[in-house]
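Standup notes, structure subgroup. Blocker cleared on the calcium ion input:
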Amino acid sequence: MTHNFRSLIIAVALVVCFSAGSFAETYYISPKGKAANPGTQVKPWSLNKANSDLQPGDTAVLLGGKYTTQIAPARSGLAGKPITYKAFKSRTADMDLDQPILLAGRSYITIDGIKADNCKGRWIDGNGASHIVINDCYFKKSGGWESMQFRDSGGYITVTNCFITNGRDEVHIRRGAGHYIANNKILEDSHSPLVLMGCSESIIENNYFSNPTHRIIEILAVREEYNPIDKTEFIVIQDNYFGLSGKVQAIKMAGSNSILRRNIFDGCTEGVRYPSSYGSKLSYRPEGWFSQHNRTYNNTFYGCKMALRFSKQLQTIEAGGAYGDNVFINNIIYGGTSTTQFDYRHQVAKTDMALLNNSILKDSPGQGLFRWWSKEKEAYHFASLLDMQTDYPDNYADNVELDPQFVDTKADNFALAAGSKCIDAGSNLTVTTAAGTGKVITVADALFFTDGYGLIAGDTIRVGDAKAKIIDVDYAGNRLTVDSEITWAEGEKVWLDFIGAAPDLGAFEFGTASKTDPR
Ligand SMILES: [Ca+2]
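Run returned:
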């Protein structure tokens, strides 16, 4: 209490101090602006003047035109008082230089509405930065590897509502929590347009991705860290559209304790690869060591050459990696363009994952969609869904082979048509472990749910007939804390909220009017 009171006095003193001569100011900036000007719309500042003079809480309004000076704030903003660079009119402040934005070591900076096209270097150098917001920007062509480079981040890198294309590892974030990548259109990249390494508690949602050239997302451990390995975990990847992924997978999921849900994988070479492998030797690519405890549910895979690939090398596990307990529920896999929709590589076991209550069909039931290399036969072995459910009943159960009856695949509309057998065919995600009343519910498996990490709202769940919103998840204790008191029985089914009698299969809940289409 004493401590809080002292903090309050300091806070009041700070407010008085700032209000004496440091109101949040707005200055206008123009390519032809001058440092001697007052920074008004008629007599704007130069960008250099803004970089050197902007204080926490200030906003630089960039008038239209071509700028040949970097955005490079001389200082950081403060919590609740960011330094903001905002285009007067969206995407008309054109940064005409090879490395337009320098945010290294800065925090609480917002960049809004900037355009950068044809840069020889990186669009953003943000190493060591934290609490950065990049919103409504247009980035095209970057010759710099890691075009938006946020290495050694202190956390809270936000990229929203941007158009991003023709870079090289366009958004690269390394370390830190609280990253939020949402509502962007992220297109062609010579490698992987979005890479998270050593990150935790972050959200990737409502983005439109397409990269015919190579991969789309990489979730990895930090390459150079071995002891302990700096892994990526607790990432929510939801409601995204993944268009073509050329050559390799849409998502390389070498992370842990993460949720992939309601994503659409449309015509991808591979949908998701869950790897634990580093290649031929320890010093080579040791970034994909972990892929465990992930929950993948209610996704739609349509027309993919391969939906899911699992890869585990024992030497990786022996060196400190970990693999297994990846669970797949209520997904639709349909219309694949090759027979193999599930591929098992190296030493991965069929029981390193569980496939429960999915609809899995290429074009006719009974096809051998599951493949692995058979040493005995020196050839690939193919198994049908029925084979898998017969041979591994604990891990492959309650799956069906349905034509999901999408509304219009040619128009990329993967909503379920009225009458689809996938409507209300979804399973609960877990169950309660004991009867109770209150706000803290112990479940068999809390990994399906998120409290939103303070970035988005927590999940609305159903526990039997009761409905409540999650405000905290204790993953180690499998405890969900909700916002209202409810009563439940032992073994009560726990679901994400749904419409109708049960959740549907796939990414779209039938009857949802408000679903935002990221395209
Ligand atoms: Ca339903």
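Discussed briefly. The two ends are 50 Å apart (CA to CA).
Next: hand off to the docking folks.
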